Amino acid sequence: MDTDIFDSIESEVQSYARSFPVVFQKAKGSYLYDEDGQEYLDFLAGAGTLNYGHNNPVLKKVLLDYIENDSIVHGLDMHTVAKRDFLQALEDYVLKPRDMDHVVQFPGPTGTNAVEAALKIARNIKGRENIISFTNGFHGVTLGALSTTGNSHHRGAAGVTMGGVSVMPYDGYLGDAFDTTEYLDKVLLDSSSGVDHPAAVIVETVQGEGGINAASFDWLRNLERVCRKHDMLLILDDIQAGCGRTGTFFSFDNVGIKPDIITLSKSLSGYGLPLAVVLLKPELDQWKPGEHNGTFRGHNLAFATAAKALEHFWSDDTFAKEVQKKGDLITDRFRDIASGYDDHWFYLNGRGMMQGLVCRDGELAEEITKAAFKRKLVIETSGADDQVIKTLCPLTVTEDEINHAMDVLKESVEEVMKDRIKRGDANSVSSLAG
What we know:
The protein is an alpha/beta fold and about 425 residues long. About 40% of the residues lie in helices and about 15% in strands. The chain is built from 15 helices and 17 strands. It has helices at about 5-10, 15-20, 45-50, 55-70, 80-95, 110-125, 145, 150-155, 180-190, 215-230, 300-315, 320-340, 360-375, 400-420, 425-430, and strands at about 25-30, 30-35, 40, 105, 130-135, 165-170, 200-205, 205, 215, 235, 260-265, 275-280, 345-350, 355-360, 375-380, 380, 390. It is globular and about 60 Å long. The relative contact order is 0.15.
């Protein structure tokens, strides 16, 4: 395995390559292949970017035909056939079935740029600077988005003081019995709370990087009520949890809320191509022409695959039902793994096919994922201390592939826990169930 060129000139900022130190060459469906032809089951899937798998054949054909026909690849934000087809598909398969009249903004092609645009328009409309974000939230690493991100590792790289944001406790942060939206409401009612009247709230229904923390539907509905009461916009960041990850196209589909602004990216293109959008209620579309722009805000290759992905997977509820069924299987298998040990060692977080096995600490989670990688399973961690082993496998994964991955995880957990006993970890010896 030749890694000399990576070691000699690639920046130290690289991250995933440290966890999965091989050179990958090919990918198909739920699998990655290294340059020696070894097969790895991929439960990372581009950090949630490949919901329909690697090189999905339906989308690949669209992409190859598009290129073969010398179709527009780069068009700034000019009108193109590919953009028209994408907008039509989005309206037909996503917006109209949900009675949504949101308009579509194309920011730069990354999730963090979509967040930047959402924050900017919210502040401009309301004429206020402050934004409410939540503990363990993650919204990107450009400065505006970073100010709403909780993780100290990422915030520490900013190099400047970040203001304009007040952080509130997410659902469950103060215990299951405490509704933190009541605290938010109280703070906003108190002129001496020290929290300036916000322009908006930004929230994830399931916190991906924050540890797969899933907000209850009641909490989300209460949050929307607080927003309406205090004249704040509700920004729903669905970049990782959206595009089917929780079992419905939007992660809030069954919640009964109507966000003012929605950010989407990750799996929107369907093929791993960069694409992001901001969905705005029509009355919020107060941009002046070019006021938020970018050279790559019209990625036509991504438009082509995204349109086909929406048509193929979201024209009815067949795919969503499959995702929900696979999510139940993941839950059952995670429960089986956790049940072998006292509950302070492992428990479950998440919803749908966005679930996590929460470990006692980050060191334990890292040992387990390393053991899994030796068994050719690619799976990552998240959470404040990287203590959550999370599933971000393709939504097209088969049940056999899920069971194989969970078998590998179970073997890896058993190996690591037995090794802890051998090392004389008194806590391990006394706390193992049975």
